């Protein structure tokens, strides 16, 4: 533990000393070199072990827990400030950043949406939006667009080619064939029984006629 702490202290002292001795001409170069050296040190087994030891130390854990409220408050103030809102607007215009955030919060968003769909107030808001004539018009135009039709065709094609979909269709066809076969067999059995009954009745009638003639 102490060895790891000493290693980190040496690293920080080295950085401070190099930063204080920078000259205007090679300041950028010295900073980049120092930064690279620190990153390389942190990537070593000793550097990783030092960080792990510090983070697992009881006092550090307690300090992190105590600072959670402060961190939360700071983040909330930053996000709700004018500069914070402007930053997020610009950040979300970057497709890569937006995709990364969406991917990282996918489970949370799905859970939130499911909870909202159970909320009567939210359901009413969604229905009000869908009843808006402009929304209905935009939705209809989107459905008629070439891009949507091509997308729908692609989805249908991918679904039809899906092994799971093929297996379900096969099960349905086999079940239908078995039900049809069973129905036909039941019909034939009923017809044969009816024919036998008619034959027996005819034979009985013939016997009765012979008795009367005698």
From TrEMBL:
Entry-linked Pfam families: GerD (PF17898)
What are the start and end residues of every segment in region (Disordered)?
178-214
Gly residues: bias regions = 183-214
UniProt domain Spore germination GerD central core: residue ranges: 64-176
NCBIfam families hit by this protein = spore_GerD
Query: What is the name listed in the Swiss-Prot or TrEMBL entry for this protein?
Result: Spore gernimation protein GerD
Q: Which species is listed as the source?
A: Lederbergia citrea
Q: What is the lineage of its organism?
A: Bacteria, Bacillati, Bacillota, Bacilli, Bacillales
């Amino acid at each position: 533990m102490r060895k790891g702490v000493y290693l980190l202290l040496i690293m920080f002292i080295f950085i401070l000393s190099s930063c204080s001795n920078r000259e205007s001409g090679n300041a950028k170069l010295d900073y980049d070199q120092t930064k690279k050296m620190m990153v390389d040190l942190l990537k070593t087994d000793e550097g990783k072990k030092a960080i792990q030891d510090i983070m697992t130390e009881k006092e550090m854990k307690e300090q992190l827990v105590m600072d959670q409220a402060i961190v939360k408050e700071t983040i909330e103030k930053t996000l709700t400030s004018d500069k914070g809102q402007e930053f997020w607007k610009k950040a979300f215009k970057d497709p890569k950043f937006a995709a990364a955030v969406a991917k990282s919060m996918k489970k949370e968003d799905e859970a939130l949406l499911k909870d909202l769909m159970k909320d009567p107030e939210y359901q009413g808001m969604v229905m009000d939006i869908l009843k808006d004539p402009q929304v209905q018009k935009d939705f209809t135009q989107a459905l008629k667009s070439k891009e949507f039709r091509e997308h729908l065709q692609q989805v249908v094609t991918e679904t039809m080619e899906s092994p799971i979909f093929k297996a379900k269709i096969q099960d349905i066809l086999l079940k239908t064939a078995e039900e049809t076969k069973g129905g036909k067999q039941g019909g034939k059995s009923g017809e044969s029984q009816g024919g036998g009954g008619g034959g027996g009745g005819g034979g009985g009638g013939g016997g009765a006629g012979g008795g009367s003639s005698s």
